[in-house]
Amino acid sequence: MPLNEARAAGGAALGACRRCGTCCRRGGPALHRADKALVVSGRLSPTDLYTIRPGEPVRDDVAGGILTSADTDIIKIRETPGSRACAFFEPDGNGCTIYPWRPLECRILRCWDTAGIRRCYREDRLGRADLIGHIDGLWDLVAEHDRRCDAGRLVRLARRLRRGDREAGAGLARMVRYDDALREGLAAEGRVPPAMLDFLLGRPARELVRAMGILTRQASAHGASGAPGSGP
Ligand code: SF4
Question: DSSP string of 5-61?
Answer without folding.
Answer: HHHHHHHHHHTS-----HHHHT-PPBPBGGGHHHHHTTSS-GGGEEEEPTT-EEEEG
